[in-house]
Amino acid sequence: MDLSALQAQLRQFADERDWHAFHTPKNLSTALMVEAAELAEIFQWMTPEQSDAASSDPATREHIGEEMADVLLYLVQMAMRTGIDLNAAVQDKLAKNAAKYPPPG
Amino acid sequence: MDLSALQAQLRQFADERDWHAFHTPKNLSTALMVEAAELAEIFQWMTPEQSDAASSDPATREHIGEEMADVLLYLVQMAMRTGIDLNAAVQDKLAKNAAKYPPPG
Amino acid sequence: MDLSALQAQLRQFADERDWHAFHTPKNLSTALMVEAAELAEIFQWMTPEQSDAASSDPATREHIGEEMADVLLYLVQMAMRTGIDLNAAVQDKLAKNAAKYPPPG
Amino acid sequence: MDLSALQAQLRQFADERDWHAFHTPKNLSTALMVEAAELAEIFQWMTPEQSDAASSDPATREHIGEEMADVLLYLVQMAMRTGIDLNAAVQDKLAKNAAKYPPPG
Question: Which of B85, B91, B103, C104 would disulfide-bridge A16, Cβ 3.0–4.6 Å?
Answer without folding.
Answer: B103
